Amino acid sequence: MDQVLEQRPAPEAIPAVEATLNYFVNDGSKIFTEAGGAGALDKRAGTIDPHRVVIHNGRLHAGEFLLERHGFHFVRHDTKVTDFFDEAEVRRAYYAEMEKLVKAESGASRVVVFDHTLRTGDDAMREQLKIREVVPRVHNDYTEWSAPQRVRDIVPDEAEALLKRRFAIVQVWRPIRHPVESFPLAICDARSVSDDDLVISERRYPNRVGQTYAITYNPNHKWFWFPRMRRDEAIVFKVFDSLKDGRARWTAHTAFDDPTSPPNARPRESIEIRTLAFF
């Protein structure tokens, strides 16, 4: 008798998956990350709180997401960068592209690109190319204190005048070579995150100490991911907004172990860019 092979749907068509996300416990213990040097792993402290959650396929709702409401927007966006491992090319070509994209997505009158991070799930590549690891912990990159402080760090001569007006920190995440098959980015609907879910976490560098928010578990969180993201696709998301009028201010996010990953999945390779958006 002929064996009938099970036909599994493509990941892009799956409505949702269930996966474990690593939250933090707010138990009074110090939460911090010591940034590793080039190619080294970060050192982290804090009580991890894993939870099984449903993560919805954002591709099936892509046209619905709004930066000001949900905190993120999925976009089709080409880049002229040929080699994301060439820092000079990234700074010359990609920074200009991201300034235009964030202006268009946010409506900002001025955008300052101030940082980028390359990540890989391949330890050997991370060490060889001196880039960083994926982060499988739920977090938001800036806090009420660290976001204005970043303005003072980046544009010190203009900071006090700029801080009197609205500003935001907007990031852009994309794959840099192959479609993402492992440890994709999960992103949380900003409307489902409460300020009570945010816990200050120090980020310690050799020359300064910053802050991020660790996120505690809340069953109301609504998570999305975009299966098999390609190099010509990106997620624009907001990790701070100075306005407190009900719009999205924070966007919790994390890498996660994707149950739809193939057995021999390629390690994830991605870039995230950070910008100051002034209005």
Textual characterization of the structure:
The chain has 279 residues and is α+β, with helices and mostly antiparallel strands. Helix content is 14%, strand content 35%. It has four helices and 16 strands. The strands form three sheets. Strands 5-14-9-16-6-7 form a six-stranded mixed beta sheet. A hairpin with an 8-residue loop joins strand 2 and strand 3. The chain is globular. The N terminus is likely disordered.
Output the keywords.
279 residues, alpha+beta, six-stranded mixed beta sheet, five-stranded mixed beta sheet, disordered N terminus
**General form:** globular
Radius of gyration: 19 Å
Q: What is the count of DSSP helices, taking H or I runs of 4+ residues?
A: 4
Q: What is the straight-line distance between the termini?
A: 68 Å
Q: How is the biggest beta sheet arranged?
A: 6 strands, mixed
Oligomer: single chain
> H/E series, N to C?
EEEEEHEHEEHHEEEEEEEE
Summarize the structure.
It contains 4 helices and 16 strands. By secondary structure, the protein is an alpha+beta fold.
Could you outline the blueprint of secondary structure elements for this entry?
Layout: E1 16-24, E2 32-34, E3 43-45, E4 48-57, E5 72-76, H1 87-106, E6 110-120, H2 123-129, E7 132-133, E8 139-140, H3 146-154, H4 159-162, E9 167-175, E10 185-188, E11 198-204, E12 209-215, E13 223-225, E14 233-241, E15 253-255, E16 269-278
Parallel strand pairs: 2-11, 4-13, 6-7
Antiparallel strand pairs: 1-4, 2-3, 5-14, 6-16, 8-12, 9-14, 9-16, 10-13, 10-15, 11-12
